Amino acid sequence: MAHLKKNTRGAVPGLAVHFERKTDHHTNKEIDVAKTYRNQDLMTDGSDMLSRFNERLNEVYFMKRDDVKALATWIVTLPEELSEAPYEQQNAFFEATKQFLDDRYGQENAVAAVVHYDETTPHLHYAFVPVVFDAKKERYKVSAKEVLTRHDLQTFHDELDQNLKAVLPFYEQGVLNHKTLPFENVAEIKKYNDQFKALKEELANVEENISAKKALLKVTNQALTEVELAEKQIDDFKQALSKNLFGKTVLKPDDLDRFKSVLANMKKATLQSQRDVADSNQALLKTKAQLAEVQADYQQLKDTHQALQQRVREKQQMDYAMRDMLKNDYGVEKIPHSDVEARYVLYRLDHEQLTKSKKEATSWLAKLKTARENPDSKIASSRLDRGIEQVKALINRIIELTRDLFKGPSL
After folding, report:
1. What is the pLDDT of residues 15-49, one digit of tens each?
2. DSSP string, 45-60
3. Which domain holds residue 217?
4. Where do the coiled-coil regions begin and end (predicted)?
5. Does one domain contain both 114 and 151?
6. Who's near 354: CB < 8 A, 6+ residues apart?
7. How many CB atoms are closer than 10 A to CB 26?
8. d(CA 157, CA 179)
9. At 224, is the pLDDT very low, low, confident or very high (cuts 50, 70, 90)?
10. Same domain (yes/no): 36, 152
11. Does pLDDT of 346 surpass 80?
């Protein structure tokens, strides 16, 4: 299984510390320092990651902005089938993977290739500067957007898998195992993950709001108590003065009355604050109700998410079974991606699951034509031609229905 991350220039020093184990104080608790000696640097030029990175950056054009993604990192995990394999086979797997990445992104752009054996699962950290040639300005430049395109990410796992199977005789099941998500499910999972994250953030905000209002209520009640206590002390003091042995007072009662009036105003303000708190309590009750709804939505989404993951696992098992059947029973090593998309369209047509969207129908037509033009396609040309004609007719019907809709009833 492989994972990609794009990083800014500011993140590179920290990544270098982690990749090259430049510290003994690791925040990652899974690192077993007793096994660190087994780690392997596959780049043998005697330099280090940071030096290679700065050197390559100086050789190409780089827009000096903090948000520019200057470094891309792939993490490729050792497949489960090789977890008990000899060290030599595991090392050969990572060496072959590095060679594939060098060929794909350019060996001159690679700045790190380190295998970690001191964590839970052995894995390769491969880092490179995403460089592309700018034909307009006739120079090489850093552009993660142009190097790591959607097509590159869609084809990466399959091409890595095929490459490793071609060069490693002991490599059979591959990185496309039952833990690898099929591409068509990624968008759906991302949608649920985004909703899941948003609900968690909303829940945190609600809880913070509740804590703030509780603190306000506590402070206001304390202020009211202090004012009432001060008022009582003034009354006691005034009565004590009136009972003076000589019948005189040091302070005039009017002065004390004015002071008491000030306290009364303070009390009035505090009572107003208390009323505000009462209103806040009402809002708090409402917020608590909202919190309960959010928690219910959170639980429902979590259940849906788990159900989705279960469906994905079932689909992955079926996907592996179909791949195994095609390879071992029918001798089919690889199915073009265009064939997969075209077969999906043909299935919809055969089962009359037609779209009402012109945009989607147009994309169907493009997929069928792409498969028809591919010399490696396994689909019969006659079937593709028939499908193309069906989609063309479908597009014409959609256009006619749209035209009638906008025309309206005749007078």
Report:
1. 998 888 877 655 666 677 777 888 889 998 888 99
2. SS--HHHHHHHHHHHS
3. 188-284
4. 189-240, 284-318
5. yes
6. 348, 394
7. 16
8. 12
9. low
10. yes
11. yes
Cα 371 versus chain centre, distance? 33
CATH of the domain at 129: 3.30.930.30
Contact (CB, 8 A) for 92 and 80: no
Residue 160 within any structural domain of the chain:
yes
Shared-domain flag, residues 14 and 114: yes
Task: Please give the Cα distance from 94 to 76 (Å, whole number).
Answer: 8
174 and 222 in one domain? no
Query: Do 196 and 265 fall into the same domain?
Result: yes
Q: What is the spatial order of strands in the sheet that 2-8 belongs to?
A: 2-8, 69-77, 123-128, 110-116, 40-41
For residue 204, give the amino acid letter.
A
Sign, CA torsion 187/156/160/60: negative
More confident residue, 109 or 228: 109
The pTM is what?
0.45
CA atoms within 13 A on the CB side of 30: 7
Domain end among 180, 201, 232:
180
Taken in order 81, 86, 87, 91, is the CA torsion positive or negative? Answer: negative
Mind listing the pLDDT tens digit for each residue in 133-149? Answer: 999 999 999 999 999 99
Structure tokens of 147? 């190097």
**One domain, residues 55 and 127:** yes
308 found inside a domain: no
How many residues in total does the chain contain?
Answer: 411
